[in-house]
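Batch queue: ligand-bound targets. Current item pairs a single chain with pyridoxal-5'-phosphate. No template structures supplied; prediction is de novo from sequence plus SMILES. Inputs echoed for audit trail.
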Amino acid sequence: MNADISTRFIVEKTQKTRINEVDFDSLQFGSVFTDHMFECDFINGEWQTPIIKPYQPIMVDPSLKVFHYGQAVFEGMKAYKDDAGQVWMFRPDENQVRINKSAKRLAMPEFPKEWFFEALDRLLVLDKEWVKPGKGNVLYIRPFIIATQNEILASPSDRYKFMIILSPVKSYFRGDVRVVVAEEYSRAADGGVGAAKAAGNYAGQFYPTNLAKEEGYEQVIWTDDATHEYLEEAGTMNVFFRIKDTLITAPTSNRILDGVTRKSVIEIARANGIKVEVRRIKVGELVAAAKNDTLKEIFGAGTAVVISPVKSFAHQGVDYPINQPEETYGSRIKKLITDIQYNRSEDPFGWRYKVSVDNY
Ligand SMILES: *Cc1c(COP(=O)(O)O)cnc(C)c1O
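Prediction returned. Tokens below.
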């Protein structure tokens, strides 16, 4: 099943860039795409010649398996430009391993590591003008795999398409959010696909999240499906709780996505003298900490926003405001991580990846 990695990429460049039509100051997250995209089909048990071509629609049959059975996985990554114009990625090796782990869980073929990196390097060098330098400017990278067999028999597809599309975004501070702790619905069940970045995990949480929004909350903090007693994650972000001076986050499991931001927060916090406990944490412990004012912070951690502070949480109809200190761990950790991402600081952990086509 391994592709012959000596196969040359086909690169078809656009005739005319669309970059001048884009207003980079008012980007709606994930709605504008760069000039090029990557495409590679899996047919007859093998990944075919990788292609980079102008961003364009794909023509597909209505019987495509992904439409009927949801065999689809994805990744979310970012590229950053430093002041010298060099483009960087953050821990892309983690995303490469994870998309194949997700693919395996959904009975999909793994994509070769060498091609994953070559596709990213080539695409990002071609579209490097779309990565704007300066604070808050970033290029969101969306690799994904879908089942492309034309057949509605309920079985794994024998054809797949791996693609990468790129979207310039502006990361802005959208204010502290209000969250509600899940008591009825679940994002993931034990033994299910919660640990995979499967498209269907998102579909399943839209409805309960809409219900929460109607009540005035921006996000749901999911709890374990069996008891709803343990805090798990936020559904697009992992979640951290600061009680007194200790950061607490749930251990990953087959229900919780193993976030790259989460593991980076844990490492960087520890390296900077912040105590981190990776352990199960009960809603009751959080409520008690809020009541005796030892709950100092809650924040989400994920690629899209890095750190997203929470200003209150609700449980059993009661709102618990969080009395944040002036100097939060969240903002301190966010600065340490973004300084590494934008090449503004040393990289003691070796997390930065220099985008280049010199090796191909
Ligand atoms: C992508 C994702 C995260 C965050 O992962 P990062 O690698 O940090 O971006 C957290 N939870 C879920 C369910 C996700 O899909």
